[in-house]
Each structure stands twice: as C-alpha cells, then as structure tokens.
Task: structure prediction
Amino acid sequence: MFDIAFNNVNEIIGMNGHGIYVWSVYSIAISILVMSFLVAKNRIKGVKRKIKIKNAPS
Amino acid sequence: MLRLIKIESSKLFYKLKSWLGPMLIMILVLTAFPLSIDISQFDLEKFYFSIIVVSLLMTSFLATEGMFEEDFEDGSLEQEFLIEQDFYKVVLSKIFVYVCFIGVPIALIGAIFSVANGVAIESFVSVFLSLSLSNLLLFNLFAFGNALSINKGAMLGVLTSLPLALPVIILLGTAIRSIQYGNGFLEIISLMIGMGFLISAIMPLIISTALKTHID
Amino acid sequence: MISAFIHKFSSPKSFVQITKTLYPLFIFTGLSMLIIGWTWGLLFAPPDAVQGNSYRIIFLHVPAVIFAELIYFFMALCALMHIVWRVRLAAYLIKSAAPIGAMITFIGLFSGSIWGIPTWGTWWQWDARITSTLILFIMYLGILTLHGSFSNLEKSDRLMSILVVIGVVNIPIIKKSVDWWSTLHQPASISVSGGSSIDPSMLYPLIISVIGLGFTLISLGILTSRSYILGREKNKKWVLDHV
Result:
C-alpha cells in the first residue's frame, strides 16, 4: 500500500498523459484556498485597524 | 378567507397587465419559436415540450413579479395584516387567485400548443395536468422570491427563487417524458400532487414570515 | 433547557475567545491531514484500472462536494437557531460560511469538469447531479446577494435565514438525484450506512483528505467569522478590549 506508484519524477508529472488535468486541478484549488486564508487574515487586520482608529483618543 | 379571495380576484382583474401579459408572452414565445427554425429539418414533436417548459418558467416568474410590491408600497399589505392578524390567509388567497386566473390559463395555452405541434390529442389532459401542477409549485416558489426581495427589484427575486424552481422543471421534464413514452405517468403525477399540497400549505406560512420581517 | 444552553454558548464574545484558542489546533490538524491524504493519493495509491491516473482528482473533488453540501446543512441549522431563538451569532455564522460554501462548491464543480475531460470526453454534462450542484452554487450566490441588498442588517439576517432554511430542501435532491434520475455521473463511492465500492488503498487517503479538508475549512470559517463578528459588534466594549 505504501509503494510509490511511479518510477521517476517525469512519470509523476506526466501521469501517463493525465498529469495536466490532475496537477492543474490541484494547483488551482490550492491557490484558491491559500488566497482565501490570506484574504480572511487581511480582513481581520483591516477591521481591527478601523476599530482602533475609531476609538483612538482624539 | 372567501372575502380575501374575492378582494384579491377583483384586484387582479383590474390589473390587466398582470394577468393578460403573461398569457400573451406565453403565446408569443410558443408562436415565435417554430418561426425561428427550419421546421422541415427538425422533428418539432420531440423537442417542442422543452420550449413549453422554459416558457412556463419564464411566464410564471413574470406573472408573480410585483405580487406583493404594490400592496407593500401603498400600505394595504400592512392594513390587511392588521385586520386579519394572520398573514397566512392573505398570502394563501393571493397565491390561490394567481394560480387560478393566470397559472391554469397558461397551462391550458401550453397544452393546446403541444397538441398543435404533434402531441397526440389523447395526451392533452395529461399535459394540461402536468403543466397546471408545475405552475402551482412555481407560483409558490416565485412568490417566495418576491416576498424576500419585495422592493429590491425583480432580479434579486429571480436569483433567490430560481434555484428552488429548477428541481420543479426537472420533475416536469420527467412527467413529459413519461407522457411521451407512455409509462410511469401516474407515479410522477401523484408525486407532483403531493408536492403541490405540501408546498401550498407550507409556502404561504414562510412567505408571511418574510413579509412580516419587511413590515416590522 | 435547550434555550438556556443555546443562550449560554451563543454569545459572539465567547465564540471569538473559544475559537481563538482552537484555531491553531484546527489549522495544524487540517493542513497535516490534507498533506498526508493528498500525498498518499497522488503518489502512493495505485492507478485505477479504467481511468488510469486521472482518478486521483477524486481526493480533491469528493471532499469538496461533500463539504459543499455539509456547509449548507450547517447554515440551515444556524438559520433555524436564528429564526427560532433569535441567536445573533447564528446569523453571523451563516454570513461567514456562505462565501466558503460558494468557494468549495466552485472547486467541486471545477475539479469535476476537468476530471470529466479524460473520463467522459466532455467537461460538462447536463446531468442531474452536476446540474444540482451548479444550482447549489447559484443558491450560495443568491444568499450572499440577498444579504447585501438591505441596509438594515438585522432584516437581512432574518431574510437570509428564511432563504437558507427553504433552500435546504435542495440538498437531498442533490444527494439522491444520482439514484432518482438516470445519469452519467457515477453512484456514491462511499456511504454513511457502510460499504464502499472503492479499494482500501484508495479509500483510506480519500477519508484522510475528507477529514483534512474539513478541519481546514473550519479554520477558514473561524477566520472569516471572527472578522465579521468584530465588524458587526464593533461598538461593544468586549471588542475594544479584544482589539
């Protein structure tokens, strides 16, 4: 069960002609997930900044 | 309840474009389609039903557009709530009137056009029944969309209620196929009747909750 | 008793405090399980007898579609809580979960389309399951659009909750559409009632990927809900102390 299913890196990338489908799907999905996390973190920073500015002693 | 139905019927009767408009649009679309294609190349009987189904979806949405908007803006919706203390009856009577005076005629038009385009005359009643029950479901769902987006434009109502209406279209398509192939129609129509009763009972309650939210 | 329990644990303040502690655990668990599951599935699982290596998209596609539906169920539960018990936090969670649900549904649709090219020879089929998932995606967009249409946020919350509860009827239709209508889409590979049609060497990485994606999405949900709650409750004292 834990033997690698490919013989070399080229086979991993090519996946017998299906590599383009598999790797494009995973790379786009991972990009979307990473971007979502970054956007969410930025939003928290933005909200905190706005609250601090609004409540800063004048 | 009868009083409400009489009031809604007379209101609808005087709003000519509300009931005549959808019927005319249905006739227009069903007439225009064969004119736009080379009918010698296509077997109209096989796919004309699809045009009827899509026209039904469009006209149902158009028929229920602004169902509550006018009453909301002139305050009569709020007045009816204060008199009745039960929005459910107000909404139920409104949907009932719309289905009877717009939904059923649209279904009749669709059934007539289907027979005119090659469907067997023996299937007329089955087609009419399927289209009428679909209209009952669609009017309830689109009325819900209109209640949510009462004065925010028709597009918001479509966006919120169209995804709910598409399963009804899938069911109608299955009913039409069962008529075409001559099997399983009773099962499908029983399912549609059951769904019709369920949605007609529950949806006015949900719509009244949405309307109360706007009024509060 | 239920009402008392809900009101005790449904304050936005306690939610933010509890999730701040849980977030590192969830993100670590999620990412590590996702890495293990995907590495196992992409590199170690044997190729499929019929589909070859293109089937490896399953380790992303199936978890994405599972959570597309589960997130909607979660939103429906929150919507019920908001409608029945007027829990504000429930409405905040719906608003935070909807974009995540839309995103993961899009990933499910997109991965399924790409998978369809080598498998079915087409990237799209007007098949019951695929169409129902597209409808689910449109529903997520409808919910977000509805909430953004009203300036009165309490009214928006209530209307959004009503729409979510009504829309939940679409989820069983998606789930069962594979069985009810003849369809190109394959039947469910795994089921809650037990029994699976796929080999254990593919099943185990799939299960790990599902759990990993679940924890990752929960972590993302914690972040989005935190920013939304802080924005909505910005005039409260606890927010000033928190910030």
About this structure: Residues 179 and 185 of chain B are 6 Å apart (CA to CA). The two ends of chain B are 24 Å apart (CA to CA).
